[in-house]
Specification:
The structure is a single chain. By secondary structure, the chain is of the alpha/beta class. The chain contains 18 helices and 17 strands. The model has no long low-confidence stretch (mean pLDDT 88).
Amino acid sequence: MKIKVKNLGVLKQAEFTLGDLTILCGCNNTGKTYATYALFGFLSIWQRMFSIEISDDKIDQLLADGVIHLDIQEYVKQSEQIIIKACQEYTQQLPKIFATSTERFRKTEFQVELNTNNIRLIDRFELTIGSTNTEIFSIIKTEDSTKLIVTLLVEKENIKIPIDIVKRTIADALKDIIFSPLFPRPFIASAERTGVAIFRKELNFARNRLLEEMGKNINPMELLFKVYDDYALPIKKNVDFIQQLETLVKKSSFIAENYPDILVDFANIIGGEYTVTQNDELYYVPKGKRIKLSMDESSSAVRSLLDIGFYLRHEAQQGDLLMIDEPELNLHPENQRRVARIFARLVNLGIKVFITTHSDYIVKELNTLIMLNHDKPHLKAIAEQEGYRPEELISYDKLKVYIAEAALIKLEGSHKKTKCQTLTPADINPELGIEARSFDPTIETMNRIQEAIVWGAE
């Protein structure tokens, strides 16, 4: 999946391809968060943006014959135009995604490019629509079939569901079958996650108090959504996630069920575990101690990893896209290295990871995992000696790394190169890893100054 943007925040023109592990690095205020939020927003609401038309003829046939067989490949052929139209529609939604003025995105363009020649359909799909006592119609796609079978389950004279809802339901089924394998389910941990963790109790109290005091003629959900209109979608998602922990803890992720050692590694990073009581009280329990700490009593590192910890234990699914804005927040360099190793492990298990980072430690640790991933005796010896497990090593071709910077590029419609803010692909070598030149000038400057201090008098 390739994403192209124009006039998005400070990014004049940029493009990036989503890898199994995607990294955006660069200085502050260079467009990393804009690119991240725009991608997250699209992946969160793409189904609303996509439009698939079901003809009246098909509905007439369904009512007349009681069944229709739709050729899914006919809709696959329309996929490119469907995506183009959806991106145009999504661009109009960017002010809501970022919770800012429409004027700021007046010249913005957002595009998603996919290889639609090799679309892999969902193997099986089955949905039955009806009321409590009556099933009205079913939608089925069997394995290895390219036909969608819609069957009326009641006499047409007894249909009480509007035709436009029938059309929309069939269209939604086609969207899932055709496009859901192409778009991963996103989960984001925004840079504001530490504050959300601290004020979880206050947010819950304010919400409950608001609901108690509202009049009967007010739509409570509508009012609540208005309360959060001043926040970008990723922040809203963080607030929603943190307020649902009592329900969330009843679920187990595929990681908790099949790879509990990852949760052990995560617990070692935070030095304990999170727990939620029956009264929806959130605590951190330090390892080996009989105390429970509230979030405001816990370290900033514990708060910054809260969303990620609950996601790994209760929510993660294969095929997801885990997006983290600055995973290094409040972490000691050693724990930044450990986080990098968890990222590599997740990628190898089928979860895509997308991060923005200022951490040279994370990038260098990923380089180590790339460099050790070769079948050479001395590398195997180093990995064993330093405690690296085979499942943590990662192939260089699973990574995409981009540097947010001002660079000379050829703008569309121009014959000359112009220096503007963009995303530049970083070189990734199978033997040496990522060329992290975003950090190099600062490190070289510090080394030069310190060498002058030590040796300057001679």
